[in-house]
């Protein structure tokens, strides 16, 4: 029986290794293609059509944007990887709209079937959740692109004012899902986010710093609780 269990576990690990190898191959290929296509348009506008603004404005704009978003470039993959996994991370960065669509979709899918983030089951679930959300997003986005402006023009002002609360409502629902499991973490996350928002911290006022501080504090508390528990025993 033990030999059979070991064999099944080995097959499972080999399957995940092959899956990750395919994810790395197609993820790097598709992201590389997207990067090339993204660069081609400004190159075409600059050097073919002659709309190049000069290197001074380009460098200044890049430095300003890097100062604002540089932390996000570094921390987003690190902070989201435990939830998304290898394949989910590639798919999320290819799709875009990570914090507003991909991460909530992955978290909702994992919560629906009881998959823990950071596990193999959680990674597969997150990937399927992001894929489904992307397909639905495309299906909804196409008619909205063609008819969205008209729909917004006929909506009453009271209804248009409600649109700004859609995203906070989504994040509130996700917070509620995880707050039930870890109430202390929810209190810490809300407290850190309020401090980052209220205090005059300048460029630090963004979601990535809130996530980073919350994760570090929760890890510290977890380790402290483990030490205290071991000390008592």
TrEMBL record:
The chain crosses the membrane at residues 25-47, 54-73, 79-103, 124-146, 158-176, 183-201. Keywords: Membrane, Transmembrane, Transmembrane helix. The keyword Membrane applies. The keyword Transcription regulation does not apply. This is Small-conductance mechanosensitive channel. It comes from Evansella cellulosilytica (strain ATCC 21833 / DSM 2522 / FERM P-1141 / JCM 9156 / N-4). The lineage of its organism: Bacteria, Bacillati, Bacillota, Bacilli, Bacillales.
């Amino acid at each position: 029986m033990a030999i059979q269990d070991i064999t099944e576990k080995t097959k499972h690990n080999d399957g995940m290794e092959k899956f990750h190898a395919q994810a790395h191959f197609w993820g790097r290929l598709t992201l590389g293609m997207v990067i090339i296509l993204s660069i081609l348009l400004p190159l075409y506008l600059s050097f073919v059509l002659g709309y190049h603004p000069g290197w001074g404005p380009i460098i200044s704009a890049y430095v300003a944007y890097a100062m604002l978003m540089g932390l996000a470039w570094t921390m987003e993959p690190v902070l989201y990887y435990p939830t998304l996994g290898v394949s989910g991370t590639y798919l999320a960065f290819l799709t875009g709209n990570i914090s507003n669509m991909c991460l909530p979709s992955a978290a909702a899918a994992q919560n629906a079937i009881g998959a823990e983030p950071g596990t193999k089951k959680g990674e597969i679930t997150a990937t399927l959740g992001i894929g489904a959300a992307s397909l639905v997003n495309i299906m909804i986005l196409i008619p909205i692109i063609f008819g969205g402006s008209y729909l917004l023009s006929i909506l009453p002002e009271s209804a248009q004012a409600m649109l700004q609360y859609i995203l906070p409502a989504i994040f509130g629902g996700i917070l509620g899902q995880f707050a039930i499991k870890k109430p202390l973490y929810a209190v810490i996350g809300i407290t850190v986010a309020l401090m980052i928002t209220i205090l005059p911290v300048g460029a630090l006022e963004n979601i990535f710093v809130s996530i980073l501080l919350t994760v570090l504090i929760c890890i510290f508390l977890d380790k402290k609780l483990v030490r205290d528990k071991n000390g008592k025993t």
